[in-house]
Every structure is written in structure tokens, then in C-alpha cells.
Amino acid sequence: MPSSPPADLLAELEAMIGGEHVLTGAEAIAPYCEDWRGRRHGIARAVARPASVDEVAKIVDWSRRHRVPLVPQGGNTGLVYGGIPDDSGQAVVVQLGRMNRVRALDTADAVAIVEAGVILQTLQQRAAEAGLFFPVSLAAEGSCQIGGTIATNAGGTAVLRYGNMRDQVLGLEVVLPDGQIWNGLRTLRKDNTGYDLKHLFIGSEGTLGIVTAAALKLHAAPRSRATALASVRDFAAAVRLFQLAREHAADVLSGCECFTEACRALVETHAPHVAQPALRGGVYVLLQLDAASPEIPLDAILEGILAAGFDQDIVEDGVIAQSLAQAEQLWGLRENITEAQKRAGPSFSHDVSTPISAIPDFVERCLAALQALEPGLRPVVFGHIGDGNLHFNILAPAGLDPSRRHILQEQVETALYDLVAAYRGSISAEHGLGEMKRDLIEHYRPSLDSELMRAVKRQFDPSNLMNPGKAVRLL
Amino acid sequence: MPSSPPADLLAELEAMIGGEHVLTGAEAIAPYCEDWRGRRHGIARAVARPASVDEVAKIVDWSRRHRVPLVPQGGNTGLVYGGIPDDSGQAVVVQLGRMNRVRALDTADAVAIVEAGVILQTLQQRAAEAGLFFPVSLAAEGSCQIGGTIATNAGGTAVLRYGNMRDQVLGLEVVLPDGQIWNGLRTLRKDNTGYDLKHLFIGSEGTLGIVTAAALKLHAAPRSRATALASVRDFAAAVRLFQLAREHAADVLSGCECFTEACRALVETHAPHVAQPALRGGVYVLLQLDAASPEIPLDAILEGILAAGFDQDIVEDGVIAQSLAQAEQLWGLRENITEAQKRAGPSFSHDVSTPISAIPDFVERCLAALQALEPGLRPVVFGHIGDGNLHFNILAPAGLDPSRRHILQEQVETALYDLVAAYRGSISAEHGLGEMKRDLIEHYRPSLDSELMRAVKRQFDPSNLMNPGKAVRLL
């Protein structure tokens, strides 16, 4: 196919959305071409910043006519290189930050209609101002955008009670790879009229179209909260404590997080400003209860869980926050692990899930495998135990020769992911595949799954211009 | 394509699954060829009753080789002719009732793996015996099967809190139209590794493959319950009462149902065994709270809702059940409306949804339109007001000439569905499309939605042998 000279191409793009919204030049586009941790640098022709769904549709139509690959990007907070361009230099990044309107916030129906570029925290705040609650909460919430959280089906700390991003979506507006605008912005709680197309786009990492807006469920605002930190011997006890919490408090259990003593010690060393609790143990479990009804005695329910945990020799020690400030201190420990880990040196990260009951065996076998591989590896294991989702991170051995790092990383990955597979788990519980795990997943996923996904991709995007090379490998 | 003589065809089928499991002969297959209300009679070559996923795969392969359409069928309790054959006489019904094993029930992970032919009530009971809870509950639960509830994304009375069938599914096993078995029976709470294929099959009414088993979420068993019936002036007040309930009791609100005074009177006349409450009003709202934590003061919370309702002039009268027997009496009213309506004579049924806040206006305009059309029409409006889902049924005028019935039914449908469309609602909130609404939906759904669905259907089932003519119209 004949292609226009590059200058004409971009001039056409500029005419469509305004020259000031088409960024070019290495320096101007650099922040959009690398991931936020600075680990992967891609190359793009330009960065386009459309302000409306019609402009996005024009860009997609332009990309189709000129065969220019598009990389949709939100807040660029992803961890798997899903929202940045590859090395080909062919792609244009479509950055959706200017589409940042809350189009509607309906308190009667408890629904918000927001554009892709709205920052997650902004939505949380707008919902709170309206006396409601948007539950998806994650570390990057101050900069990640709704479009990206939908494209990656983001998780976080409230999945246990409210589900992933997928579970919040009532409807979507999507620009399809052929440039048509699909208006699926419905706000219905029930609708059984054919295939539920929105689920195809959620979690598809921009490979089937560009999400430009979403209708999202809002929830009743919690009016009371109770938080506890318990120390337990090991992951077996942590899982049993979660099960106790589910049994005693299913109605109000919002979070059940865990981290090891190694994580706590890492925070103590590398994030000394974080308050430390008095208790010590092998594994810590953070429990959070929330209630919209002030009549619900959260403290009593939480005490009941801990008391049952003591009685059954599950809990070794525990503390219940006596104030919101104390609750935030307990969360501070959990929330500063990633930062402490970063300060402690290079590490290998893994976002895995298994059935919840498999966690103790899984962790034990992983630790043994790592020990056998290289005794200097220092595991930093934490995560959302109530979802069966662990961030199984590992600090590289002190003084590791940089030339050996890549080999060791691969060995660690293989050891861990083989065990994930043995427990029928997932090698990406909440972060997605992006470019990072696109090939790796082929090894762990049944080939029929991959074939079906490729067939869907080819049908929606026969020219492979929508975020090519991400999530789905085309043979 | 050459086709074998019919006798050879069925002999081959019999050899695969056993002669006694291939039913032929008009009388033997009649119950599988008509819907349970006896409104629609189809014709089939035979009814095949496989006992395993391998047998289903063989049947699908056989159907593909011989170009025989298949109609998957569960308990045959559908309301839209989705699970029965058409008039062509070409199809074989695949009845999944022999695949009725609960393959696993894991209390630690709160997951059940069940085959398609397991009856919904059986799953509810098995979960209860294990101290857990399966929340999907609907009128046909004593005979509908899990496979059918997944294929139709069944709803019911607990959607408000727990979601539709879709929301219970962690994984599926599906025989694809090409005869391959897709093993997507995962039990993970979080997994972001590519397109979430299971959502394509859920609600697809057997047109993309045959669901043979599912991994389903179980929930903590409610240990206490509180139920109230309130009378309110009209639907505006009913919606406001629902909103009050959501605000006061979001953590524990399991059901919010409604019905009109006409419904109550119909039950009184045609189901006189059902206990009648003392209160009277224009519309009745049934509220149910459930809690897993016995510490939660459900009665106090329910009283708080009603008290707020009185204060704000929303509630006219109310009664809180003082025992489980009384709660069942209150539910008895709601649950006997369909039966009473059936006894009252011929009627036109509509399963619609709108945004919840639109219900009052929507109902008012519907009633006006019906009055204008034919003053003898008698609306019987009830349903799941908390989901925005009304069963907008209408008793035909007394003494209606049967020859006029079909015309009037069409006029009523057009009047109602045009108003549903005006409020961006759904003409099938929970019953699906089947054969009944397959063409009608084309008028109300954006054509792009239909095009996308047809593309998916063609890709998965290029020979159009999986439940052809249901849910999706191929041009």
C-alpha cells in the first residue's frame, strides 16, 4: 500500500485535532514513550491528544487509511508495557488525558458517566462529594485514568468486596478499529439482549478498540470503618484467618491484605517515617470492614474475628485501630512495601494468583525453589490474600553481577510461573499482559485459549493497528 | 453437501451415546419440543441426552459433519422459546439433564464446579449443606438447570445484592461449534491474561457453543434475615423508598421487589390460599435484608428505613415480619402474582428494564398509552424495582375476540417497547431474546450492536448450527 510522506501524514493529523495537540520531537514525546518505572523505552512518530470521541474516531480512521499503528494511553501507570509504543517507530500514541469530563453523575441511579481521561482519584472524589462511593482503589489512583483501568481491568485493594473494574462497568463508549463509534453507554442494571459486548473490551488492553467513556456503578458510601492488623505464624494461618473473616463478616469485609515479616522489616529499614506496630509474626494480615449502616457494630464484629482467631490458635497477636489515623498507620505499612522494596535495590516482580486455599503450599514450594536456585534471593511477598493474589516480588542478591541479572530473572520467573501453573493459577492476576507477558503467556495458557483470542482480535482488527503486539500474539 | 439418510444419521448418534439416550418419535420428544407454557411447538429429529462433555463433543462433531442444527436445552423453563427447536424439523435437541454431577464443592475456596444439568435448587441445597450459599434464586429454580441459567444469564430476586448468573461464574467448560472442548474451568478470583472469553458464552443462549460445566462462586450463608412490606402511593414513592433502603442498608440489602394494588387484588381473587396483609396502598414494596454476621441488627436497620420513609411521607403503612413464617407470607404475595395472573385469563407479558429513576415516568406513560389503546387492558405490574426491572404484564380485555388478540398484542408491545426505548431501557431485562424477540430487538438495538454480534456469531459458528435462529438474526 502506498503511504504518504511522514510530514503530510502528521499535517493531516494536526488538521484534525489541532497542531498543539500533536506532540512530536524526541523530548516532547519521551514521557509518553517510556513506562513510569523507566524500564522500557519505545519510539513513536507522535503523540496525539484528542479532546472528544469524534476526534478519536477521526484519528482511528486516519490510522486505518495510512496503516499507522495506534497505542492508546491513559495515565501511563501500567507495569507490563501495555500503554507505550514498541521500537518500530511506526506508532502514534493516543493519549486520552484531555477527555477528562465527568459527563454525568446521577445520585438517584448511582451511576457516573465519565470520559476515559478522568483520573481515578477524581472519580472517587466526585462520587464522595455526591454522598456516594467509587470502590476501585489502587496505588496509582492519583494518576491512572479510567480508560486505562477499564482496558486493563484494574484490581486493587477493594476487589474482595466490590470486584475488579470490570464489575463496575454498566456500559462503554468505544471507537472500534474501523473508526465507528460504538455507543454502549447504557446505565441499566439488567439487560439480556444478546452478547454482552462490553466484556470483550474490558481487559483487552486497547487491542480491540479505544475506550472513550464508561457508565460506572457507584455504591453507598461507607459511614463507618474498622481496621485491624494481626500477626500469624505463616500463610496457612493467614488463609485460615481470611476464611474466619469471611465467615464472620462477609457483609462488611472490604479488604484482606497480607505481607510477610520480611516486608515489614524492609519498610522499617527503607521507609523509617512509617509507624511500626508493636506486634511481630511470620505473616501479617490486615483486615478492613466498612459499613454504610452506622448501626452495624464493626468493632464488635472485628473483635469477634480476632477472638475466634485466638481461640483457634490462628492469630498470635492483633491490634484494632482506635481511630482513623491509626487505621491509616496500619495501612501505611502495607502501602509502603513497594516503595521500600524499590529503595532496597533491584528486584524481580510477579503478580500472581492461585486458588486461595492453595496459597500456603504454593508459597512454601516457591520459597524452596528460590532457595535452591540462589540462596541470596530475598522474597518480598505481599498482596491481596482474600483474592488469592500475591505480589511475589524478590530482591536480587546483594552485589549481583549486572550481567547475570537477566539470566537469574528468567530462572526465577520460570521457577515461580511453573508453580503457578501447577496450582492452576494466573501469571498476571491484575496487571495484564502488555508487551511484557505477551509471549510468556503462550507457554502457560492452553493453546485453544490463544487461538480463540487471536480469532477475536483478527475479526475486530484485521489490519492489526490497535495496540499491536500487546496482550495477544498474532502468529 | 451430501447428507446421509436420516436413519443412518440417528444410528450413528445412537452408537455414540447409547440408543436409550436418543429419543425419537413424536410422543417421546414432545415435551422437549414445546415450551413449558405450551405456547410454542417446534419439531425435532430427535432428542439426544449425553452424559459427559466427551459425548457432547461427539454430538457437536457429528452435527458439524452432517450439518444438523443443535438446540441445547436445560430444564426447558425459558420464556422466549430459546431452548426449543423451530419448525424445520432439522434440529436435534441436546438435553443436558444427565450431566448432573456436582464435580466439586470446595468450602475453603467457596467454589462449586457443577455440570450443566444440575438443577439450580440442588446447587442451592448442596451449598447450604456445606454452610455456604448460592444466591441466584428464581421462580423456576426447582427445575431450571445451571447450563440454561448461564446461557441466559438468569436474574431473579437476589440480583440487587449478588448480581446475575454472570456474576457468579468464575470459569466455564464449553463445547465449541467445531467440536473442541474449551476448558476454562478456572476458580481464580483474579486473572488478567487476555480477553475474558467466558463472558462471550454467558448470555449467548447456546448460539456460540454448549456450556457443559461451570465453576461458580459460593457466598457466606446468611444467618439472619429481616423482611418488610410497605405500602406507598405510587411508583415515585416506591423508587424513593428503594433509594432510602440503599442509603440505610446497602451492606445487607438483598431484595427490593414491588407490585401494584392490582397485583395484590389479583392474588386475593385467584390465589385465595395466600395470606393477605392488613395494609393497602397504590404500590407495595417488599424489602429483604440478610446478614452473615449475627451481630448486625437487621430489624433495627429495617425499622430505620421505614421510619425515615414515614418521616419523609414516602411510606403510608408498613409491616415487619416477626418470624420466618411471616416473612414467607409476605413473599407469598409477590411470588403468586404470576400464577394468579395465569388463572385470571390470557395476558401479554413484558420483561423490561429502565434506569431506576425513570421508572415512575415510564410507568405513568405506559399506563396512559395502554388506556388510549384499549381501556379494557388490565396492567399487572410487578418486579425487581431495585434493578429497574419490571414485569409489565397486561391482562387482555375481558371477552376479547381471539381473532383480535394477536393484533392487540402487537399494538401493546409497540406502545410499551417504544417507551422502553425512549428511556434507553431494555426489552429483555432478564429473560433473553430466544426466538421470540430475535427480530424485534433489531428494531430497538443500534444496528452496529447487531452487526458486531453477527460477526461474533459467524466467527465462532460459521455453519450456523448452534441454536440457529435464536438470539441473533443472521441476515
TrEMBL record, chains A, B:
Gene3D superfamilies: 3.30.465.10, 3.30.70.2190, 3.30.70.2740, Uridine Diphospho-n-acetylenolpyruvylglucosamine Reductase, domain 2, Vanillyl-alcohol Oxidase, Chain A, domain 4. InterPro entries: FAD-bd_oxidored_4_C, FAD-bd_PCMH, FAD-bd_PCMH-like_sf, FAD-bd_PCMH_sub1, FAD-bd_PCMH_sub2, FAD-linked_Oxase-like_C, FAD-oxidored/transferase_4, Oxid_FAD_bind_N. Residues 40-221 form the FAD-binding PCMH-type domain. Keywords: FAD, Flavoprotein. It comes from Bosea vestrisii. Pfam families: FAD-oxidase_C, FAD_binding_4. PANTHER family: BLL6224 PROTEIN (PTHR43716:SF2), D-2-HYDROXYGLUTARATE DEHYDROGENASE, MITOCHONDRIAL (PTHR43716). This is FAD-binding oxidoreductase. Belongs to the FAD-binding oxidoreductase/transferase type 4 family.
